[in-house]
Amino acid sequence: MRGALGPAVDVPLRRTLPRITDRLALLGAVLIVLITLAAVLAPWLAPYPADRLDPVLGLSPPSAEHWFGTDSLGRDLLTRVMHGGRTSLIIAVATLALSAGVGVTLGVVAGYAGGWIRDVIMRITDVFLAFPALLLSVALAVVLGPSVTTVIVAIAVTWWPWYARLAASTAASIATRGYVDAARCLGVPAPLIILRHVLPNALTPVLVQISLDAGGVILIAAALSYLGVGAQEPTAEWGLMVVQSQTLFTTNWWAVTFPGLAILVTAFAFNVLGEGLRGALDPRSVRT
Amino acid sequence: MIEVRDLQVRYGERTVARVPELDVREGECVAIVGESGSGKSTTLLSLLGLTEGAHVSGHVRVCGVDVLQAAPRRLREIRGARVALVMQSPQAALSPATRLGTLMRRALKLHGVGGGRIEQVMRDAMETVMLEHRILRRYPHEISGGQAQRFAIALAIALGAEVILADEPTSALDVTVQAEVVGVLRRLREERGLALLLVSHDLALVSTIADRVLVMKDGEVVEAGEAAVVLAEPSHPYTRELLEALP
Amino acid sequence: MTMLRAEGVTLGYGGTPVVHDVTLDITEGGVGLIGESGSGKTTLARAFLGLLTPMSGNIWYGDQTLKKADQRRFRKDVQPVFQAEALDPRMRIGGSVAEGLSRGERHRVPELLRQVGLAPELAERRPHQLSGGQRQRVVIARALAVGPRLLILDEPTSALDVTVQARILDLLASLDTERLLITHNLAVVGRLCRTSHVLFAGRVVEAGPTAELLDRPAHPYTLALRDAVPKLGGPPPVARGRTEARPAETGCPFRLRCPLAAAACERAPALREVAGRQVACHRAEDVLGG
After folding, report:
1. Total count of domains within chain A
2. Taking 60 as the threshold, does the pLDDT of residue A163 lie above it?
3. What's the domain range around A78?
4. Do A3 and B81 touch (CB under 8 A)?
């Protein structure tokens, strides 16, 4: 009889889950604000100038003067991590804006129009989805030369199709709603229907996805730096910092741990915020 | 089978349903009629202790169990087995990846029906609601709304229900399908002495099957009595309004 | 001449027809389209609104096919009223009502809201802040904004409480427009439509004056529909034939559900004139004779 009595069984679970995710989401939001502030205000907040070398203090452990210790060139790690946050966040924002912009535009058009227009757009999307992201990025880096811009372009190229798919399926379902039919019957032109009805209503799941993806983008950007195709010295970037110090892990743990932690915490914060948003905007998804 | 006195369901300060008296005897059909927000569904759910987060007071006896005092275990025993709940869209409450037959078999085992008897019980139940046996091999999404509703009733019968609480059981169905489901419910009443408490917004439908009716508005019972009397000579203006609204 | 007319229209999605060779005039005095879910009535409505192109046959708008007709004029003439969820959840009520108005005509929104019995202040609200009945009135106001001569009403009241339903029907009846009313509710049709068409499995099985159809059905399906409707204080609704049977692929589509089915029914019946209406049934005379 679980069938008929299902709701009674489900209620307690449904009630507790949102509460947990809500608190986590709040924590995520607070962390993101703090990280962003630290990154944006790095030039003013950081204890030392960004590139000040102090060979004498190379690889000194965390201390009162250098809370995170120093790297092999004697640069203050806290300062570097804060400046690195600027790079990582710029990469995340630029990549997501680029891929969501392109993906959502194409996806919404495909989903609303249907027919051959959708077929063409979705085939193109499939082609891009077929590229292995990292490999493509490496190839691009060879062509464009390794830089932050390369990272942004490389990730965006392989990332937008996901937004296109998401937006297309959402838009397709919105296109069947009564208010879209009503607008068509009133003679509202298709581009205006898309702008007025389809896009605003398709945006919610996209925003959730963006915040879920932000952590992933930061991780991939770090991986690209790790592979040597991303940010280059002396630019501070978390992935790059991890690469440069990884061999020191057993002897000078802090040099790799703090930038690593920065990546981890940021990715985590975006993820829980995304999950929380998803729960708040679509209560049904929380149950799964 | 159902005995309610001074039932009051409150969420915080707000009283959402107040029912001074409600009795359903064996073989009887009582209907609670009202519009959305009248408290009719809340009343129904409170009879099974299913109003989560609500403060329920008064005296409620269902199949001899004092619902408001009983231990959760005792409640679970009557829920599903002796008292069945049939909702507006039972498909939503059926686990989507389980075949109907498997589902019914599990429910029977859970309520202690012996292994050898299970198949026979299932066959009888399906026959009673006029569903073909092969429906049991289907998944919930593969059956129609009317079939799902009759399956929910079959499940109740298989488990030996004595009381069916039905919340708008036919309002999502086509009229022809509604007639079938109502026919099944009527027959169960006559042949098995099943007690039926029906929540509905459809006065016309109620007038054809209920012995007694309660008319609810904004959480209060505004009129109650024999169906024939209430519907022929309504004494409350709201009942009159409902009757006049019939197209 | 009627404003809108379907002629031999076959409709479907992805090449599978769901409406077969339907001819239907939207005549004066209201036209009802009755059928259960899956009968193709909403599909037919979408074709009348130009939202779906027929696989074969034509929708005639005056003396032109819909494809060739002046779209601006057609859009002003024919408007839909769908079920209550037909409002953009993100848009303010005023915005929805003004959807079909030009910038210069926006000042008419309060007047339109008043016309459907709503307070003009509601223009600032969003759909979720309104009741179901109020939302349905907004949908009607949006359609009326462009001054239509014909409303295509698709189950305009079925999601509403009975008392609300009655008031919306009053409103619809008071409007000075022609109407095609799509519903499964026979009683509603009796009130708003002079003629009715009964649709089964995408085919018109009976068509004629509504009163005649409801008083003395000539098709067993119309009879089944009528007798399934519970009447206040009347006998319990009767289930005639099992609803589970799928429409037959060949012959009369209703024969697997029909208590009167005979050998003749393996041939598909054509619409013919019987007792002042069109009916597609070999045994119409028997149905009429009781």
Report:
1. 1
2. yes
3. 19-45+71-286
4. no
Please count the structural domains in chain B. 1
pLDDT digits (tens, 9 = 90+) for C141-152: 999 999 999 999
Which B residues 34-73 touch C at CB under 8 Å? Answer: 35-36
Please tell me if residue B164 touches chain A, with a CB cutoff of 8 Å. Answer: no
Residue B225 pLDDT class (50, 70, 90 cuts): very high
Residue A119 located in a structural domain: yes
Q: Which two tokens stand for residue C64?
A: 């032109």
Burial-class residue A192 by CB neighbours within 10 Å (0-12, 13-18, 19+). exposed
- Domain of A121, CATH number, reads 1.10.3720.10
Contacts of A286 (CB under 8 A, 6+ apart): A14, A17, A18, A21, A278, A279
What is the pLDDT at residue A281?
A: 66
For residue C7, which phi and psi values (nearest 5 degrees)?
-125, 110
B34 touches chain A (CB under 8 A): no
| CATH number for the domain that contains residue B56 | 3.40.50.300
- The yes-or-no verdict on residue A246 having pLDDT over 90 is no
Pairing of strands B55-62, B65-66: antiparallel
DSSP chain C: --SEEEEEEEEEETTEEEEEEEEEE--TT-EEEE--TTSSHHHHHHHHTTSS--SEEEEEETTEETTTS-HHHHHHHEEEE--TT-S-TTS-HHHHHGGGS-GGGGGGHHHHHHHTT--GGGGGS-GGGS-HHHHHHHHHHHHHTT--SEEEEESTTTTS-HHHHHHHHHHHHHSSSEEEEEES-HHHHHHH-SEEEEEETTEEEEEEEHHHHHHS--SHHHHHHHHHS--TTSPPPP--S-TTSPPPSSS-TTTTT-TT--GGGGSPPPPEEETTEEE--TTHHHHHH-
A118 domain residue, yes or no = yes
In this structure, what token pair is assigned to residue A34? 């703090």
Residue C227 confidence (pLDDT) above 70 = yes
Give the minimum alpha-carbon distance from B168 to chain A in angstroms, rounded to a whole number. 14
Domain interval for residue B206: 2-245
Using the beta-carbon criterion (under 8 Å), do C143 and A182 form an inter-chain contact? Answer: yes
A7 falls within a domain? no
A94 or C243, which is more confident: A94
Q: Where are the domains of chain C?
A: 4-215, 218-290
Q: CB-based contacts of C184: which residues, under 8 Å, 6+ apart?
A: B174, B175, C34, C35, C36, C37, C155, C158
Q: How far is C43 from chain A (nearest CA, A)?
A: 13
Name the neighbours of B, counting chains with at least 3 Cβ pairs within 8 A: A, C
State the fold for domain C4-215.
Rossmann fold (3.40.50)
Q: Which sign does the torsion angle of CA B152, B157, B160, B163 carry?
A: positive
